[in-house]
Design brief:
This protein is mainly alpha-helical and 436 residues long. It has two domains: 39-226, MFS general substrate transporter like domains (Growth Hormone, Chain: A, Up-down Bundle), CATH 1.20.1250.20; 240-435, MFS general substrate transporter like domains (Growth Hormone, Chain: A), CATH 1.20.1250.20. The chain contains 17 helices and no strands. The longest helix has 33 residues, at 39-71. The chain is globular and about 65 Å long.
Length: 436
């Protein structure tokens, strides 16, 4: 299977020659549009990804500082921030499917109402968190943030499928991944500096960045109004539940995506603990390891789109999942940080390629009238991985602490095997998906 369109697929919406949206001169791409000519549209479409990544990084990285001052209980703080996975199991299924069913004649289009409702909830929850007088109100602001985040994200991502030819989706997701990485990295670097100036500053700035990035979609809204977006068939509209239960290919995809997110969630939570507690190294070295992963992610994301264009999405994901899973699993044998610094960049590049392409794959597998539901299904399967990954990896580390061959890392080396195997297991699902 390739990411290109076939003769049986509906043609991409056409846009009258010379008609452009706003002063940014955005044009709706056709099958003949090159990736270079589509860059202004891809950049504009991706700006909310930067804003959302910046905002959620501020919340999850610096929010615990605020919450811990209110409750003095790390367990409660972890439960509040970790609630992201629970929200991802419910809200995306609703917002994504409903955005498919809204008529195109809605003044702001069928996707934008969810964006315009979710953005104020996200920004308001983030900006109000540092001013919460007690943990109950602090927890409420976190809840409001995640409700807004998952109302916003699936319909926003479905705009890509509305406006772009399918052959361009992989390249678009690579562009989006770069902006996501930029938002995360800038938030990590500047957040601490802003926090030292004023406790509330990173949260207020995060809300402002998200608001500005959302307003950047205004030219895209004009574009949608003029492009003759397809009116969804309400009689045959597909709910996320129906899409999952009746589409074998999306069932296989969802299982594979849950495995990938399980691995990534476990890595994020335990990588620093592995370096500092397992290997007895400094937190500065742990930061250096994370920096290596971040640089590899920036390198891998644009490669993903180019490889998918040439070889197809599923073959590229299968190759990267194999390399990523193998490198991670080998980490269980390491006794010092040196082998990890050698292997980790290779694994991180493969992981970046793998984690860039799931949304593009979901869009190519879903019916054209159910792209919002497909985006919601991506977040739903992601939520399963986010919830289970840290829990099961933590349990494995605890159980392995008494194993003699893992005593040198106090059991933390078991993390690598537990997060590596899911990627190798996903190879079977990808093979079945390709055959299907």
């Amino acid at each position: 299977m390739t990411s290109g369109t076939t003769a049986s697929e509906p043609a991409a919406p056409t846009f009258p020659a010379g008609r452009r949206a706003g002063r940014f001169r955005l044009e709706l791409p056709t099958e003949q549009t090159s990736s270079h000519d589509a860059r202004p549209l891809l950049l504009t479409l991706g700006l909310p990804t930067f804003g959302l990544a910046f905002a959620i990084t501020v919340l999850t990285t610096y929010g615990p500082t605020i919450l811990l001052s209110l409750t003095h209980s790390p367990a409660k703080v972890g439960a509040l921030i970790g609630g992201e996975g629970a929200f991802a199991l419910v809200i995306p299924l609703i917002s994504g499917a409903l955005s498919d069913r809204l008529p195109s004649s809605t003044p702001s289009g069928r996707r934008m109402p969810f964006v315009f409702v979710g953005a104020p909830l996200c920004g308001g929850g983030l900006a109000l968190l540092p001013f919460a007088p007690d943990v109950q109100l602090g927890g409420l602001t976190v809840l409001v943030f995640f409700v807004g985040y998952y109302l916003y994200y699936p319909p926003y991502r479905a705009i890509y499928a509305d406006l772009l030819p399918k052959r361009m989706l992989a390249r678009a997701q690579a562009s989006q991944a770069l902006l996501r990485g930029a938002g995360l990295g800038i938030a990590l670097v500047t957040g601490g500096l802003l926090l030292s100036v004023w406790t509330a500053l990173p949260f207020v700035v995060g809300a402002a960045v998200l608001g500005a990035a959302t307003l950047a979609l205004k030219p895209v809204l004009r574009l949608q109004k003029h492009c003759g977006d397809r009116e969804p068939d309400h009689e045959s509209g597909t709910s996320t539940r129906e899409l999952f239960l009746e589409n074998r290919k999306l069932q296989l995809f969802s299982a594979a995506n849950a495995l990938w997110e399980f691995s990534f969630a476990g890595l994020k939570v335990f990588i620093v603990l592995y370096v500092t507690k397992g290997l007895g190294q400094s937190s500065r070295l742990a930061s250096a390891v994370i920096a290596v992963v971040a640089v590899a992610y920036i390198v891998g994301a644009p490669i993903a789109g180019r490889l998918a264009d040439r070889f197809g999405i599923i073959p590229v994901m299968a190759w990267s999942a194999g390399v990523y899973g193998a490198v991670l699993s080998l980490g269980v044998l390491a006794r010092t940080v040196t082998p990890m610094l050698v292997l980790l960049p290779v694994g991180a590049i493969a992981g970046a390629i793998l984690m860039t392409l799931p949304q593009a794959l979901a869009f190519t597998l879903a019916p054209d009238s159910a792209q919002g539901a497909a985006a919601g299904l991506v977040d739903f399967s992601r939520g399963i991985g986010v919830v289970l990954g840290p829990v099961l990896v933590g349990a494995a580390v605890t159980g392995a602490s008494s194993f003699w061959f893992l005593a040198h890392t106090h059991g933390y080396a078991m993390m690598w095997l537990v997060i590596g195997l899911p990627n190798l297991l996903s190879l079977g699902l990808l093979r079945r998906l390709r055959n299907a």
